[in-house]
TrEMBL record:
The keyword Repeat does not apply. The chain crosses the membrane at residues 122-145. This is V-type proton ATPase subunit S1-like. The lineage of its organism: Eukaryota, Metazoa, Chordata, Craniata, Vertebrata. It comes from Cariama cristata (Red-legged seriema). Keywords: Membrane, Transmembrane, Transmembrane helix. It is found in: Membrane. Residues 118-154 form the V-type proton ATPase subunit S1/VOA1 transmembrane domain. InterPro entries: Ac45_acc_su (IPR008388), VAS1/VOA1_TM (IPR046756), VAS1_LD (IPR046755). One of its GO terms (cellular component) is cytoplasmic vesicle membrane. Belongs to the vacuolar ATPase subunit S1 family. Pfam families: Ac45-VOA1_TM (PF20520), VAS1_LD (PF05827).
Length: 198
């Protein structure tokens, strides 16, 4: 594909040539196209050549990318073809780039395969937050599983009151006066026992 600027000021005589290649892949059982090389021509003379990387899509699709550039800040999908080439003197950046070389119908682009990475910053942050939440949940479950119940159970019971016939000489042992008030009264001592289960 060749993009010519025509008679537009300083761009007169400048052309951009896209060399596309079609290949058949047995894994996907379909034809794919790829941008193999990009050439900058000025007055029919090649000024710079860039090798394209990762610019490919199924033949029935188009390829779309927000930035296709030779600059590192845009992920440098265009690489100078050689160290001695004049390509290093050029900086090429396409914004909102879309291309389709084959199976074009009615002059419109087909469905676009986007260049967005599967691990964009937003997706990575979501994965990190999910991992943190899973760690918190795992720690909480670990604490619940290893939560220990009380090892000791106490059960105290009072013995039923038992009043046996008492003689006068035993009354002194079984009753004692309460001196909290002026009247003399007696209380029976009640024995208690506790059972401790361990």
């Amino acid at each position: 594909l060749s993009l010519k600027f025509g008679d537009i000021g300083n761009l007169k005589g400048l052309a951009i040539r896209f060399l596309l290649r079609a290949s058949y892949y047995q894994v996907s059982v379909q034809n794919w196209f790829s941008l193999h090389r990009l050439q900058l021509l000025y007055n029919h003379s090649i000024q710079a050549t860039f090798n394209a990387t990762r610019i490919h899509a199924p033949a029935s699709y188009s390829y779309h990318c927000e930035h296709v550039s030779s600059l590192q800040r845009y992920d440098a999908l265009l690489i100078p073809s050689s160290a001695n080439d004049l390509s290093k003197l050029w900086e090429v950046t396409f914004i909102d780039f879309q291309i389709q070389g084959f199976n074009i119908q009615e002059g419109h682009f087909a469905y676009a395969k986007d260049c967005a990475s599967l691990f964009s910053p937003a997706i990575l942050m979501g994965l990190v937050m999910s991992l943190i939440l899973l760690l918190v949940l795992a720690y909480a479950l670990h604490m619940l599983i290893h939560l220990k119940s009380l090892d000791r159970h106490y059960e105290c019971k009072a013995s039923p009151a038992y009043f046996a016939q008492m003689k006068d000489n035993d009354m002194g042992d079984e009753k004692e006066p309460l001196r909290s008030s002026g009247n003399e009264s007696y209380e029976f001592r009640n024995q208690q026992f506790c059972k401790i289960y361990i």
